């Protein structure tokens, strides 16, 4: 006589659990869409289902099997990471008949080609591509709802506006007191010279909820993240390139809060036909160089809310 399934037994404490699953499942895939071109990556997945109060545990092997079997269907094919997350989430509900929802997170290190700003040298940069899917069971099999997100985390740099203003004051005082230059002339000189500041390595994340069949090129999100900072960064930089990157950063100083706001504005402009109910999430972390702490800003908002905020608080359209 077979032994009873421990997972289906009554738990010692009957309380539902919102999320139980398996993390960091790695499955190699031939190609993924990035810049509308195939990129070879090894994505990893975190997959979860909810657990009802009357059941002791989930069946972890079913979750791993769902990931492996769904991913194998995409072998030697191009795919979008958000689509594979959605397929895994739906398969989880089929395998875990006691679960009412399934959530899947996918991520992959992705390498893409760029050219340096002055010398036009080809260089390869990296970002983290991220995706998410949430499937919820309805009353009937056809009532299952499915939501999906695509996003990226990219690295750049920011120049501190506050420190730069302090150095402008120091430079103005030096020109007027030590070099006897009139204040108006001193300010004109300063306005035409790059003024230094302390730099921060910055990491920006944007996640965009999208309807089924709505294509988003992840590289477009990378560009939105980088443009929200003072400057992008490069693996290879010749001297003219390095000067150009630093000067660009100093000409575009920004706080961590500025980066979040720029990303929100640019996502609204870039994906103007997304439905109002689509959820957007943003995160910016700046690694301080003159402090031991980091600065972080976050925002989660729907597309409709973002549109209204920008329209009502920015009458000039900026």
Describe the structure.
Strands 1, 4, 5, 6, 7, 8, 9, 10 and 11 form a nine-stranded antiparallel sheet that branches. The chain has a two-stranded antiparallel sheet with strand order 2-3. The chain contains eight helices and eleven strands. It has two domains: about 5-160 and about 195-315, Urate Oxidase (Roll), CATH 3.10.270; about 160-195, no CATH class. It has about 325 residues and is of the alpha+beta class. Helix content is about 35%, strand content about 35%.
Strand content: 25-35%
The residue ranges in which pLDDT falls below 50 over 5 or more consecutive positions are none
Pairing-aware structural class of the strands and helices? alpha+beta
Radius of gyration: 25 Å
- Residues in helix, %: 25-40%
The CATH homologous superfamily of the largest domain is called Urate Oxidase
CATH architecture of the largest domain: Roll
Silhouette = elongated
What's the rounded overall pLDDT mean? 89
Give a brief description.
The chain has 318 residues and is an alpha+beta fold. It is 33% helix and 33% strand.
Provide tags for this entry.
single chain, 318 residues, alpha+beta, Urate Oxidase, 2 domains, 9-stranded antiparallel β-sheet, two-stranded antiparallel ribbon, 8 helices
Q: How would you summarize the topology of this molecule?
A:
Blueprint: E1 17-26, E2 29-34, E3 37-41, E4 44-51, H1 60-72, H2 81-95, E5 101-115, E6 122-136, E7 145-159, H3 161-178, H4 183-191, E8 199-210, H5 218-227, E9 231-232, H6 239-251, H7 256-270, E10 279-287, E11 294-302, H8 303-313
Antiparallel strand pairs: 1-4, 2-3, 4-5, 5-6, 6-7, 7-8, 7-9, 8-10, 10-11
Helix pairs in contact: 1-2, 3-4, 5-7
């Amino acid at each position: 006589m077979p032994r009873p399934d421990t997972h289906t037994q009554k738990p010692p404490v009957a309380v539902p659990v919102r999320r139980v699953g398996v993390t960091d499942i790695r499955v190699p895939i031939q190609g993924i869409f990035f810049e509308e071109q195939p990129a070879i990556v090894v994505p990893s997945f975190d997959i979860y289902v909810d657990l009802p109060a009357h059941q002791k545990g989930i069946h972890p092997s079913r979750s791993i099997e769902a990931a492996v079997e769904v991913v194998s269907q995409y072998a030697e094919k191009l795919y979008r990471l958000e689509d594979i997350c959605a397929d895994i989430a739906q398969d989880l509900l089929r395998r875990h008949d006691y679960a009412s929802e399934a959530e899947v997170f996918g991520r992959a290190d992705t390498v893409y080609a760029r050219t340096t700003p002055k010398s036009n040298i080809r260089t390869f940069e990296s970002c983290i591509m991220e995706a998410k899917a949430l499937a919820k069971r309805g009353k009937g099999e056809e009532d299952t709802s499915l939501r999906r997100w695509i996003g990226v985390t990219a690295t750049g740099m920011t120049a501190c506006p506050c420190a730069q203003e302090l150095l402008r004051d120091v430079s103005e005082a030096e020109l007027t007191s030590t070099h006897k230059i009139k204040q108006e002339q001193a300010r004109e000189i300063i306005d035409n010279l790059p003024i230094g500041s302390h730099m921060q390595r910055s990491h920006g994340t944007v996640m965009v909820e999208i309807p089924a069949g709505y294509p988003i090129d992840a590289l477009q999100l990378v560009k939105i993240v980088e443009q929200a900072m003072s400057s992008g960064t490069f693996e290879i930089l010749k001297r003219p390139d390095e000067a150009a990157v630093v000067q660009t950063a100093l000409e575009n100083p920004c706080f961590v809060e500025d980066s979040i706001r720029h990303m929100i504005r640019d996502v609204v402009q870039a994906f103007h036909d997304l439905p109002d109910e689509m959820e957007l999430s943003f995160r910016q972390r700046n690694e301080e160089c003159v402090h031991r702490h980091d600065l972080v800003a976050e925002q989660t908002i729907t597309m409709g809310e973002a549109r209204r905020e920008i329209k009502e608080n920015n009458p000039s359209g900026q």
